[in-house]
């Protein structure tokens, strides 16, 4: 991103454009770091048409904000401006007070920022909107709740906006709601290998591109806040599988969805199917063209570990827990779906449901996406993983580029979309392994603490510290790095997918060097915390 600022004492003119830049250090008596390129030139020339105390952005920056679900941040200028070397350009003003201080603080504290997940913790003594509590008076969980509420509310606004603002009462769907998820089948039995996604005709797509977000109303917002707050309370105080982890996964899903690229950018998503009246791919097989799909994947990330027991499914089956006897396999995942779904279906959350779906078809699609997405987070079941691998190979036919695939049927497009969603949530569930080293190290320690605590409680057969070092190397080699390669090879996420693979490989190398010492540090940390707890009265 290129940005220029002209300061007039306590005022400013700021212009921004987005694109590639070249960076370098200019030598001489006044050495300085500087950015060069067309992006910087555009930003500098836009400045002449700026206004004091206002931020102006280019079309390229506006498109990135829109893709990130932040279209409400900007408003187009009423007239185009002339930019030297560019001609007439449509530029945009950034609205003031776009983002609450609460959400900003949560992003900074927990590393949940869409564009910089490794942000350092910063404190803020500012207050939120009138009538709300100051950020300094909220605890960490409350701040995470507010962050999740804002993310989900924004996605709901897009769903409602795509419908033209229609939010009718859904009493007519009460019977369908009661039957959905309660047909005598388990969640796993509801799984289907291919989810038929929504198709849109040309007119619908054009209208959707023109549609602005619509306020979902105070009742729906309050219900959403109560729902997310209750979900947070249903996450046990595990070291790893807790509400902060769920929020971290949600942030990663949001980031990956924002980075899904367009079909015309050479990413292999172009389809040869005639598009006269039917959009098969949207921007990636329907994932980005349908706000309901995006909301559901983010929602599933939030609820995927609700009431997690802190031990793997194999232990639950061995202990013959009540849930294990009901579900047999994927125990924790199925339980999370049932708990979160049953709560959402209660009368007190009717306004939320009316925003999510208005028809029985939308209800069924919402349910199926939740089921498939949450079940995809069970990566320990070898049978399920083998089925996913076979479906991946069927969908992408072992080619490096999706555009080389010969099967362009509608079912093939849906299969690809279904599998991409599954891999998106899987990558997000272990996203700490594909981020900066200090993020990986933090969450690896938390997971160790949880596993070692289970062992000390007699809920694990072997001491995890004995094989933790080698086990992490194997996890990188046989799961994380192959998964990162799939994100790259499927082409959906463009060049940004390279960073996931690069971080995964870098963390693997760093773990090889530092892992053995870190395991000893983890053990010492556990013993220190345990001794402190035992010393408490």
Secondary-structure map:
Elements: E1 2-8, E2 11-17, E3 22-26, E4 32-36, H1 38-46, E5 54-57, H2 59-67, E6 74-76, E7 81-83, E8 87-89, E9 92-94, H3 101-110, H4 140-162, H5 174-179, H6 187-190, H7 202-210, H8 218-233, H9 243-259, H10 291-303, H11 313-318, H12 322-327, H13 331-344, H14 350-356, H15 360-375, H16 382-396, H17 410-429, H18 437-456, H19 468-489, H20 497-535
Parallel strand pairs: 2-5
Antiparallel strand pairs: 1-2, 3-4, 5-9, 6-9, 7-8
3D structure, described in words:
The structure is a single chain. This protein is of the alpha+beta class and 537 residues long. It contains 20 helices and nine strands. The chain has a five-stranded mixed sheet with strand order 1-2-5-9-6. It has a two-stranded antiparallel ribbon with strand order 3-4. A two-stranded antiparallel sheet has the order 7-8. Strand 3 (22-26) and strand 4 (32-36) form a beta hairpin. Helix 4 packs across helix 8 (218-233). The longest helix has 39 residues, at 497-535. The protein is globular, with a radius of gyration of 24 Å. Mean pLDDT is 81; it is low at 98-106, 113-132, 262-283 and 399-407.
**Cα end-to-end separation:** 55 Å
- Secondary-structure element sequence? EEEEHEHEEEEHHHHHHHHHHHHHHHHHH
Going across the biggest sheet, name each strand in turn.
1-2-5-9-6
Determine the strand fraction and express it as a percent band: 5-15%
| Average pLDDT figure | 81
Overall structural class, as computed from helix and strand content, comes to: alpha+beta
Biggest sheet architecture: 5 strands, mixed
User: Which residues form runs of ≥5 with pLDDT under 50?
Assistant: 98-106, 113-132, 262-283, 399-407
Q: How many runs of DSSP E, i.e. beta strands? A: 9
Helix content class = 40-55%
- Tell me the number of helical segments per DSSP (H or I, 4 or more residues long): 20
Multimerization state? single chain
What is Rg? 24 Å
Shape: globular
